[in-house]
Amino acid sequence: MNDQSQSHDANDAERPAPRPFPNSDYIRPGIDDRPDLDKALSDEDKAAVARLAVRQKPKTPPAAADQPEVQAAAMGANAPVGGADEPVPDLESAFLDMRDPMVDANGYRPTKGEVLRMKVGFMGTAFFLAFALAALNITLVPQELDALSGPIGGAVALSRVLGVGILCSLVATVFFLPLSDHTRTPFGRRAPWFAAGTIVAVVFAFSLSACHTPAAVGVVWALLQIGLAAMLCALHASIGERVPDKFRDAVGTWRTVGLLVGLVFGIWFGVLMASAPAVGMDLCAIALLAAGIVGLLVIPRESSTVYSRAKPMKTADLLVTLRVTHPTAAWRTICLTRLFASAGVMLTIAYIWFVVRYRRGADAGLDVRATMTMAALMGLLACAMALLSEGVTDLLRASLDNDRLVLMVGVALAIVAAIVPLVSYTPVGLYVFAGIGGFAIHMIDDALQSLAVASVPQIDRAAEYLAVFNTSATVGRLLGVIVGGFVFAYAAVFSSVFLWAAIMFAFAGASGAAAIAYAAKR
User: Fold this and answer.
1) pLDDT at 176 over 60
2) Which of 35, 194, 195, 349 is deepest in the core (most CB within 10 A)?
3) Are the C-beta atoms of residues 472 and 339 closer than 8 Å to each other?
4) Do residues 504 and 341 lie in contact, with contact meaning Cβ atoms separated by under 8 Å?
5) CA torsion through residues 475, 126, 403, 466, sign
6) DSSP at 161
7) pLDDT band at 1; cut points 50, 70, 90
8) Which residue stretches belong to region Disordered (predicted)?
9) Most confident of 142-146, 186-190, 197-201
10) How many Cα atoms sit within 13 Å of 102 on the Cβ side?
11) Do residues 352 and 162 make contact, with C-beta atoms less than 8 angstroms apart?
């Protein structure tokens, strides 16, 4: 058998091959001679092909000022507790069309682990930012200026420092928002600004402890605010762009918890650093560095924007947070109410160090640690009452469905809180002020946010209106420190600041009443 099979194989090998069919040897150009690109191309060639494969008309990402959820995140940035429950009108929301609410603005669906990282990341970033800013604003910087210039000179210097810082922050925000909109990098358009802002903020926070004159403190503080403005712009925009609609409320809740806990820990940290303010400032710089690290490493990486189309930058882009076209009278009065309310809040909070320490007179100041302890207790009481106000305000709004009445009640309580220290400039009077003031300020903030959202005259431009609403709060804080500087420069008693705070709240009540009247005419 083996011999027969071998002979058959030999015969087959000797047999000539059949003639090919006509034209069967024709090679089709570009088809039969096409090489295997995976084998023929190098890694560099493959990368070049991938770059050339971009769509001819890539998507243009929306600007930060065009996104209502970005402005909603900014609205609650300074609130000790959560902001209003009123949903911000967003015509691009996935809940209003057939898009998937589980994906972000770029169409990416984050995993459960990435959603958890967003919650933890935004909460951690908010915690460290609130921790550092609470310690610096309420205790450490006022203590340093008090030591450098004395009671009256220190309070006036604090007004200059805070005023220049607010002005620099406002101008920086005006530029940073549109510039970040037009940034195109492999790391995204917000992450580079957040990283650069972190570096600037950390460097100048470390420099605070080396300042030995009020002028030096003012310059360093202003540069620090520029870095913080870049961080906050990128942070607020990231929440709107990277968190899917489905998880935005949950991420916002985690962030609010981080803000509140950071505020409380920062106030008490200032008490612990009463004997070593320079060390405390350096530790606050480390906290800002931790905020940057958490924001960049814990939160999932931002997608590349290299191939995203960018519109030419216009001068109008710089004015988007400063004005809106054809605002209604009701909208103007709402912004004016926010401005005066923010000025009253700034007058009562910014100078609490000097008000507490020199309640017996400029020549009979309290001990530094006793001052810090009392200021910290007042801060804790204000936060606790703000939490209580959160529940009470929700009940009032649910039962009465009248945000205007909530606003007027809050304004009345704020005026009462400011008058109490004028009548009783004692520890008891100051604690009563802190309790009622914390309750009233949160009620005002909650009602104003709801009224602002409800009074937007053009829903498709809600983001622009809310951006101006946030700017009015910044201008109000600037007005507050300007008035505070004049009060401490010319008033004989430090409690006079509460009189002007009551006046500001009265102006807020008057403009709020005007807003109610305009709304009734509509």
Assistant:
1) yes
2) 194
3) yes
4) yes
5) positive
6) H
7) very low
8) 1-44
9) 197-201
10) 5
11) no
The per-residue pLDDT for range 50-89, each reduced to its tens digit, is 777 655 566 777 788 778 788 877 876 665 555 545 567 6
Distance CA 193, CA 156 (A): 33
**Rounded Cα distance, 251 and 261, in Å:** 16
Q: pTM, whole model, 2 decimals?
A: 0.84
Q: Contact at 8 Å (CB) between 69 and 239?
A: yes
- At residue 22 the predicted structure's pLDDT band, cuts being 50, 70 and 90, is low
Scanning the structure block, which residue is given the tokens 């070049």?
48
In the predicted model, what is the mean pLDDT of residues 336-364? Answer: 89
Residue pair 310/499 in contact (Cβ under 8 Å)? The answer is no
Q: Take residue 33 and report the two structure tokens written for it.
A: 């001679």
**Do 441 and 518 meet the contact criterion of CB atoms below 8 Å apart?**
no
Judge whether 485 and 160 are in contact, CB under 8 Å.
Answer: yes
Structure-token match 């519109």, residue found = 311
Q: SS in 3 state form for 428-441? A: HHHHHHHHHHHHHH
Q: With residue 411 as reference, give the H or E element that holds it.
A: helix 403-423
In this structure, are residues 373 and 431 in contact, taking their beta carbons and an 8 Å threshold? no
Question: Residue 402 is encoded by which pair of tokens?
Answer: 């009248």
**Which numeric CATH code is attached to 105-314?**
1.20.1250.20
Instruction: Kindly state the helix (H) or strand (E) to which residue 521 belongs, with its residue range.
Output: helix 496-521
- What type of residue sits at position 152? I
Task: Measure the CA–CA gap between 509 and 331, rounded to whole angstroms.
Answer: 15
Chain length of the chain: 522
Helices and strands in the chain: count of H runs, count of E runs: 17, 0
Place of tokens 């939160």: 299
393-429: pLDDT as tens digits? 888 877 877 888 889 999 999 999 999 999 998 999 9
The whole-angstrom separation of Cα 181 and Cα 311 is 9
**CATH architecture type of domain 320-522:** Up-down Bundle (1.20)
Average pLDDT for residues 362-366, to the nearest whole number?
76
Helix (H) or strand (E) holding 248: helix 245-272
Domains 105-314 and 320-522 equal at CATH topology level = yes
Inter-residue contact 229 to 237 (CB < 8 Å): no
| Angstrom distance (rounded) from CA 344 to CA 418 | 9
One-letter amino acid identity for 312? P
At a CB cut-off of 8 Å and minimum separation 6, what does 173 contact? 229, 232, 233, 321, 474
User: Hey, what are 320's tokens?
Assistant: 């988007």
Average of per-residue pLDDT across 308-316: 77
What residue segments make up the domains of the chain, in order of their start?
105-314, 320-522
The pair of three-digit structure tokens given for residue 343, joined into one six-digit string? 């000025």
The rounded percent of the chain whose pLDDT value lies above 90 is 38
Q: Who contacts 514 (Cβ-Cβ below 8 Å, separation ≥6)?
A: 333
What is the 3-class SS of 334-383, one letter each residue? HHHHHHHHHHHHHHHHCCHHHHHHCCCCCCCCCCHHHHHHHHHHHHHHHH
